[in-house]
């Protein structure tokens, strides 16, 4: 849930959690865009995993994107917020633990802070700093993807390349969305291309 009544003169923290492909970035972009329609100044941050500092974009898997400022450390964020009333932060799981106090301090200072991130890593372990962000937020949403094996709601990120690193930088297609039942952190085989159910078929086109 995010606020349906508009709180006045206070800030707050909203967290959008979920697995890969669950629509976290899409939802973050949607909320930030609606704030822009309301003529509220916004700023979006994302982690510069390669430690460079640059102006860039946050992109969703569905092709939506919004301008973001890349920062190497969460401590860099407060000085860059300026007059923004709405502060978006994507890929929170790639930030350091200080993001928890940074986000809460911004909320305390009257900002609406919207954070999106993976709540679990590919081994199914809670991904810091998300647990503490979830615990300190006023509003949280858990997004679900669609399991590519069985079509049920999916809450897990299945790694389909056999690598030990917790974070894979620049590895596209290294994950699939899977449900609890179909997810297996020790088996890196991708799901079969042809699914045993009719997901994605447009019956109107087949007539
Ligand atoms: P996240 O930020 O959670 O990784 P995105 O917002 O970037 O997710 O992308 C969500 C989009 O991914 C969906 O709207 C859909 O177009 C696409 N998508 C691809 N595979 C799946 C899947 N298995 N389940 C749901 N959406 C998927
Ligand atoms: Zn499944």
Report on this structure.
With 207 residues, the chain is α/β, with parallel strands linked by helices. The protein has one domain (12-206): 3-Layer(aba) Sandwich (Rossmann fold), CATH 3.40.50. 17% of the residues lie in helices and 26% in strands. It contains four helices and eleven strands, in the order βαβββαβαβαβββββ. The protein has helices at residues 24-37, 77-81, 99-108, 130-136; strands at 12-18, 42-47, 55-59, 65-71, 86-89, 112-118, 139-143, 145-146, 153-154, 156-159, 175-178. The strands form three sheets. The protein has a seven-stranded mixed β-sheet with strand order 3-4-2-5-6-1-7, sandwiched between helices. A two-stranded antiparallel ribbon has the order 8-9. It has a two-stranded antiparallel sheet with strand order 10-11. A hairpin with a 5-residue loop joins β3 (55-59) and β4. α3 (99-108) packs parallel to α4 (130-136). The radius of gyration is 18 Å and the shape is globular. The termini are far apart. 36% of the residues are buried. The mean pLDDT is 90. The site of zinc ion has 8 residues, from loops.
Features of this protein?
207 residues, Rossmann fold, seven-stranded mixed β-sheet, two-stranded antiparallel sheet, 4 helices, binds adenosine-5'-diphosphate, binds zinc ion
């Amino acid at each position: 849930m995010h606020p349906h009544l508009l709180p006045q003169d206070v800030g707050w923290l909203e967290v959008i959690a979920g697995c890969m492909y669950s629509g976290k970035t899409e939802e973050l972009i949607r909320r930030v865009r609606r704030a822009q329609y309301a003529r509220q100044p916004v700023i979006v941050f994302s982690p510069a995993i390669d430690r460079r500092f640059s102006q860039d974009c946050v992109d969703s898997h569905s092709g939506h994107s919004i301008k973001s400022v890349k920062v190497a450390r969460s401590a860099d964020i407060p000085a860059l917020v300026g007059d923004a009333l709405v502060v978006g932060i994507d890929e929170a799981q790639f930030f350091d633990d200080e993001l928890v106090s940074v986000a809460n301090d911004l909320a305390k200072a009257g900002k609406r802070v919207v954070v999106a991130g993976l709540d679990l890593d590919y081994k199914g372990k809670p991904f810091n700093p998300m647990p503490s962000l979830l615990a300190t937020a006023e509003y949280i949403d858990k997004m679900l993807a669609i399991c590519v094996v069985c079509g049920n709601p999916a809450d897990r990120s299945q790694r389909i390349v056999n690598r030990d690193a917790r974070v894979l930088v620049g590895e596209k297609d290294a994950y699939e969305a899977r449900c609890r039942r179909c997810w297996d952190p020790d088996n890196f085989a991708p799901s079969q291309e042809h699914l045993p159910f009719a997901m994605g078929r447009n019956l109107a086109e087949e007539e």
